[in-house]
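Chapter review: from sequence to fold.
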Amino acid sequence: MPNSLAYTLVITGAPWTTQAPQTALLFARAAVSAGHKIDRVFLYGDGVHLASSLNAPPSDETHWSQQWADFLTQHGIPATACIASALRRGLVNETEQARYELPANNLRAPFEIAGLGEWVEGSKAGDRTIYFHGGS
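The token string follows.
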């Protein structure tokens, strides 16, 4: 499609306490529907809570972590949680579980944990980087 853009999305707000993940998902769905590409999603700060497999909202609320996981899987979009933010907030994958000898891991597929290099790479590769902050 002519004039299509590739976006990198950065989410810094947690689900259920901010609208950042919800707004980012609405944007991502609209962008893909319009023929644009989401190059990658990067979670930073409290945004890493979106990648937890332990989120369990009440049955009458939208499960934003699952909604994101389904969208990413359906469209083959990579999503990364910043390792420093993730570790500070108790989000670990199998590698970090073993490294820190923790009793469990809780990273929801298809999210991955990596460093800020993923954000830098995404910012360089995409046409636009859009931030969804959880500010107060």
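Two observations follow directly from the output. The first strand starts at residue 6 and ends at 11. The two ends are 38 Å apart (CA to CA).
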